[in-house]
Structures are given as C-alpha cells and as structure tokens.
Specification:
alpha+beta, Immunoglobulin-like, TIM Barrel, 4 domains, 9-stranded parallel beta sheet, 8-stranded antiparallel beta sheet, globular
C-alpha cells in the first residue's frame, strides 16, 4: 500500500472564539488567535480541539483581539492593531503582513500544512534574500539558510563542529527578508525538523514534527529586539541571578574530598586570583547516589562554613537517575510516591547510568516535581549549598536512547517519551528551581542545566555541554552562545578550556580571556585529563590569568545591569550582530559571525589562540574605541588588528557608558566604594540603565532595587544621572567618570547622591 501525503483542505465553517477564530476544514481543524497586537497563534489539528497544553508557556489564554477586517471573495482578512492576517479558504493558507501591508511570512501555495502519516509539517514561502536566525543550541553558521536541523535532545560528548542534534530544543527562529523581520515559535515537543531551504527548492522552507499539532506562534515585531521581547513575554524571562554566580567558577570532574576543595579555595585566596564558586561533580556522592554525600566529606556543614569564610559558594551536580537500592531513601520514597517513569505494564523503567540500575523521575507530574524539590533541603540547602547543576537530563543513559514507549503522567495526562523527551530537561530544571527556591527562605538559587526546551530561561542557566579542547570548539561555542541568547536564554556559558582534552596554555589563556564576556564564567574539565586550576600553566601565564579574572570582576556592574535588561525585556547579554545590525550583510558573514555585543555598547571579537592578528568588522556609522588602548576606528569597515593573548580584541562604541568597579577577590567584597563610569566620546546622545540590588533575595520584585538612567549629552558636554528609582541603597558611595577620547582622562570622584546629578565633562 502506498502512503500518500494529506493536506489541510478547504475551509467549510468559521466560528468566533476568544481572541480569534476557529475554522473547520475538509481534513482538519484550525484556530487563529491573537495574544497581543504583534503575536499570533496558529493551531492546526487532525482532531477537534479538546484541550490545550504547553510545557513552555504558563498562560495559554489568548488576550489579544483578532478582528474581521473584510472579505475578498472566499478569502478572509483579519487584523490586530499591528498585523494583518489573510486566510485563503480554498485551500486553507495563512499569510501574515504588517500594517504597512508588507508580507512577513506566508504558507507555500501548493502545500501549506500537510501530513505524512502522523508527521505534520508547515511549508512557507522562501524569499530570495531571506536569512534565518535562532533555534538555540545549533551548530553551523548563525544564518541557518540552506541548512536542515532536527530536535531530539541527546547526550553528545566531544560533539563535532557540525553535530546535530545536541542537548537542547529551542524551536524558535527569526526570518529576515527585504526590509522586514518576523519570528516563529513551533511549540511541539515531539522530534521536530527545520529545513531552511536545504535540499529543497529555493522557493520554500518548512518545519514540522513526528506527531502532535501544527502549533506555532508568529511574532510580527518590527525589529529583532521586539520579536525577542514578544517571544520571551510568551515563554518567560530570567529572574535576576544570584550575584555570586556571576563570579569565576572553578570546576572539575574529579574533585574527590573536602580537603581538596578547601585547598583549592585557599590557593585562590593566597594567590589573589578572584573567584566565587567551587563546583562539585559526581565524586561528592556516595556511589553516585543523588541527594547523598560520600564519606570523604565527613563534615559538609563545617566545610561550607570554611568556604563561606573564604568568600566561596559551592555548586553540586544532580542527575535524574535514582539508584535501585533497598534502603536508599530517594529510591524507597520514589516508589511509595509513584514518582518514576514506567513501562506500559506499570513497572518502573530501569536504565543504567552512573550508579548502575536506575529509575527516572516523572517530572511531568506536579507531585513528582514537589517531591524532587523537597529532597534538596536536608543534604544541600541546610548545609549551605545554594547552587544546583542538572546534568544527564536529556535524559541520558548508557544505552544512549530510552525506549519511546516509556510512559509519563497518569490517566488522561499519560504521554510517552516520544512526546516528553525534548521537555524532560526543562521539567527537571523547573522542579529543581522551584524546590530549592522554596527551601531557601527568600534567597535565589543558582540552577544550571545541560538539556532544555523553550522557557528554560525562567528556571535555569544553560551551558553547551561536553565540548572539546580545541580552537574550533572555542569559536563554535560563541556561535552557540550567540544563537542561544537570541533564542531567549540569556544566562549561558561553556566549559572554558574544553571539557574533553588538554588545552595548551595559550588556548586556556585565550579561552579564559573570552570567557570574561560570557554570563557563566566556568572552568571545567573531565576526570581523564590534566588538572586545570589557573595557577598550573606557568608563572607567566598565571600573571595573565590574574589580570583576566580581575577584569571580569571590574565588569560586574555592567554585566549585572545587562541581566536586569534581560530580566525586563528578554534581550540577551551576548548579542549576535544581527540583533542591532539586522540589515547589514556583514553581520551574517562567516568571517564575523562570532562577534557579539556584550550588553550595551561593548563588542567582543573572538579569535583563535594561534592568531596574533585577526580581521574584525566594526558595524554602524559611529566610531569604535579599542578597550585596551582607546585607539579609534571608524564604523562600517573591516580591520586587521593585533590580538595577542593578553589583549583579546574588544571595542566600545562611541557614546557608550560602561559602569565598572574596583578589583575585588569575590562578589562579597565591597571594594573601594567607587562606581567608575567609563564614558566614550561620541557625537550622538546615549543613555544607559544602571542597576543594583542585594544580589541574593527576591526583594527586587518589591522595588527594593537601585536603578538610574544615565544620559550622555555630547552637545551640552554633560553626563546626567537621573534620580534613583527603588528603595535600595547603592553599595557605592562615590562616583568617578573615566573619560575616553576627551581632553581630560577622568573627573575626580565625588559623592554619589540619589537625586539627579549633572556632571560637566
């Protein structure tokens, strides 16, 4: 029997519903609804709509207005305040325009929404100049045009530079063509596919999944930043992170006992190498059993007290596998509470991971998430642990793939791994974040995850998994981070130096110097390779490393202010060039695609450790200053610049304002009490939102923060600090302007007042 494809068919009936319209079609049902003026949802299902669910979105209620504008023959035209939706009824096709009647995206005329068996796809028109960004953690060029990707979260150690899939599923992308932009989020957790013209005619692209609904959102914001804002408004934004987590994190798979951890912490302090975190990988556990400590850690609370006296916090790894062992509390309680994923027979599934035979929590159930979260209290939180690293949560096992028929949920909520796998890491991170937040009495936990789905930014930071110690992997890492940031995840990083391999001293120093400009600043390595503490690369390199670490801590006011921007708008910390320079073709050129803006006004140009001269592109029409020497370069051109190990190419845009602080050894230190405002001379007025809070609690949600708009006016030659907002008092007592490009170098420090301040340059 030949299997043929099936298309949606013709519209036979129209019914008004909350936020939009429901359509009966020859072969299926469709709904088009508005979530706000620039966000539309399109659902197409083979069966009548009976329920609605999303792992990524907390509120599925369509609160926008989609109104009938007019009818053209049999075709219907609807509109929001910002978008026009044209629905062709014979056959069913959807086209979205902005209010200038410029086409954003449209179903391909011959195919539209189609099925092949249970596999559902949506075919869209491909424009001649169209570029695509996004999909989160994906290899390849940042412009996805001509490439094919699939989403099936996988454990991929030392992954190739073109490997796909990796650990995360973020089915959100942005299309750019002519003079317009749009975004699409395909909310389906089955194995999914995105083909941006790769292997197909240059007139169409498509996305789809092995099963489930064709369920996607269209974002019609007029800029990339507005699309990111709408996407994160839908899927959530990051809470403010604990400040200590933004310091340097020293990690290794292989730290074996509490004396070793304390020795490392003391050495950082003795050598005056700034750091905040020691990370414990799986060796701290009793035979790899989660929620336990090995007998090599006889006094965990005492160890943590000493760590805190040294200015360190600790992060512990946690895996989903629960060892099958009588008498092991997590195992026994998990059985009693019915918390494990099952075979269809009802027997708990067993897979082999670090502890041996394991059951795996069913994080789709709220009761299991509550049980999981409560388990952190006694072994971790009560001892002073505030950071929790979720690993192996694709989920991973030694057999690599779990059987798709493994079941999750109960009753009408029952699902199989086939539909849950891509969301498993998200759900584990959610359970960890919500449980530890509940147990920490108003303090913020730090959560890190390897696997994820859209919405992960509400609960966790993410790193790029088990990378390798090569220049290619270092540069690939920045493409991954740039894409993850654009895809809604601002708290991101990679294993500095590479997890698998032994980096040369040059590679380690280069990678560390670039890691300064990533939100997660973590050095991590595998047990089978050399120790990689910063003082082990020779005295001359230790001097360089010390300066690199000090620079990170000086930049923390800028980084924390960028996090506030991400928290409020979804705009990432690491911003690929097309976010700000969307219609500049050079922003997509593979020669420059690793470059990124680090918050407002600062641009980083990653370069291999072997290169002492590199080509960079400085976009726009204004000047750029080299951070290290204030040399000025005109925007809109490419340059060959020196890139020695101790001076990675970093540039600051003219007119920019960059807040910094004095050198401190950890985030608990107060420093000299001076906020250093670096101001770069330019011809255009610019503003910067500076932000502080206590860095520990959620009091910022009650306006217990310190926020100021800082304005540079070049015509008047004045920097204005607007009156502070919020009830928090700044940790800085004085302010000093450090001037770049001006006749004078600095303005002597003066008292920092809460009222408006005008400082003459």
């Amino acid at each position: 029997m030949n299997r043929l494809s099936e298309q949606a068919g013709n519209v036979t009936k129209e019914t008004a519903i909350q936020g939009g319209v429901e359509l009966n079609l020859t072969n299926c049902f469709a709904r088009i609804t508005a979530y706000n003026a620039t966000t539309l949802r399109v659902r197409v299902s083979k069966t009548a709509f009976s329920s609605d669910h999303s792992f990524a979105i907390d509120n599925l209620n369509a609160s926008g207005k989609l109104q009938v504008a007019k009818q053209e023959g049999t075709d219907k035209i609807y509109q929001t305040d910002s978008l026009i939706v044209k629905v062709k009824t014979h056959p069913f096709r959807v086209s979205v325009y902005n209010r200038n009647n410029e086409l954003l995206c449209a179903d391909e005329s011959d195919l539209g929404v189609s099925w092949f068996g249970n596999q559902v796809s949506c075919y869209k028109q491909l424009h001649a100049d169209e570029k695509f960004l996004g999909l989160g953690e994906k290899t390849g060029n940042i412009n996805r045009r001509g490439s094919f990707y699939q989403n099936w979260n996988s454990d991929v150690p030392a992954y190739a530079s073109n490997a796909d899939p990796l650990y995360a599923t973020i089915p959100f992308f942005i299309g750019i063509h002519d003079s317009v932009t749009y975004g699409i989020f395909f909310d389906n957790t089955h194995k999914s596919y995105f083909n941006f013209g790769g292997g197909a005619d240059e007139e169409l692209f498509h996305f789809g999944a092995d099963d489930g609904e064709m369920n996607y959102y269209v974002f019609g914001g007029s800029t990339v930043a507005k699309i990111i804002k709408d996407y994160t408004n839908l899927t959530g934004r990051t809470p403010m992170p604990p400040l200590w987590s933004l310091g340097f994190q020293q990690s290794r798979w292989g730290y074996d006992n509490q004396e070793q951890l304390l020795s490392i912490a003391k050495t950082f302090r003795e050598k005056k190498l700034p750091a905040d975190v020691i990370v414990s990988d799986i060796n701290y556990m009793d035979n790899y059993k989660v929620f336990t400590w090995s007998n090599k850690y006889p006094d965990v609370k005492g160890m943590l007290v000493q760590m805190k006296q040294l200015g360190f916090d600790i992060v512990t790894i946690i895996d989903p596998g629960i060892k099958v062992e009588k008498g092991y509390k997590a195992y026994e309680d998990g059985l009693i509470g019915n918390h494990f994923a099952k075979y269809p027979s009802g027997k708990p599934y067993i897979g082999h991971v670090w502890p041996g035979r394991c059951h795996f929590p069913d994080f789709t159930k709220e009761s299991t998430r509550l049980w999981w979260g409560a388990n952190f209290k006694q072994p971790y939180i009560d001892n002073g642990v505030k950071g929790f690293w979720n690993d192996m949560n694709e989920p991973a096992a030694w057999g690599r793939e779990f059987p798709n028929l493994i079941e999750f949920g109960e009753g009408k909520e029952r699902q199989t791994l086939f539909s849950v796998k891509n969301a498993y890491g998200l759900l584990m991170a959610k359970a960890t974040y919500e449980g530890t937040k509940l147990g920490m009495n108003g303090h913020r936990p730090f959560v890190l995850t390897r696997a994820s789905y859209s919405g992960i930014q509400k609960y966790s930071a993410q790193w790029t998994g088990d990378n390798a110690s090569t220049d290619d992997h270092m540069l690939l890492g920045f493409r991954l981070l740039n894409s993850m940031g654009l895809s809604g995840i601002p708290y991101i990083g990679m294993d500095i130096g590479g997890f698998i391999g032994n980096p040369s001293p040059e590679l380690f120093v280069r990678w560390l110097s670039l890691g300064v400009y990533t939100p997660l600043f973590r050095n991590h390595t595998c047990i089978n390779y050399n120790y990689r503490e910063p003082w082990l690369f020779g005295e001359s390199n230790t001097i360089k490393i010390k300066a690199i670490l000090e620079h990170r801590y000086q930049l923390l006011p800028h980084l924390y202010s960028a996090f506030y921007q991400a928290h409020k708008t979804g705009l990432p910390i690491n911003r690929m060039l097309p976010i700000d320079y969307t219609f500049d073709d050079n922003a997509y050129d593979p020669k420059y695609q690793h470059q990124f803006l680090f918050g407002d006004g600062m641009m980083v140009c990653p370069v291999a450790s072997s290169q002492s001269i590199t080509e960079v592109y400085l976009p726009g029409t204004t000047d750029w200053y080299r951070l290290s020497n204030d040399k000025v370069y005109a925007g809109g051109s490419n340059y060959f610049v020196e890139s020695p190990l101790e001076d990675v190419p970093v540039f600051v845009k003219s007119g920019a304002i960059v807040p910094m602080q004095s050198i401190v050894q950890n985030t608990k230190e107060t420093g000299d009490g001076i906020l250093y405002l670096h101001v770069y001379k330019g011809s255009l007025q610019n503003s910067y939102t500076y932000y502080e809070d206590d860095g520990e609690t959620y009091n910022y949600e009650k306006a217990v923060f310190y926020k100021r708009l800082i304005v540079y006016n070049p015509l008047k030659g004045i920097v204005t600090l607007k009156a502070k907002e919020g009830s928090y008092s700044s940790k800085f007592q004085k302010i000093k302007l450090v001037l770049h490009g001006f006749d004078k170098k600095e303005i002597v420090s003066q008292d920092l007042f809460d009222s408006e301040m005008n400082i003459k340059l």
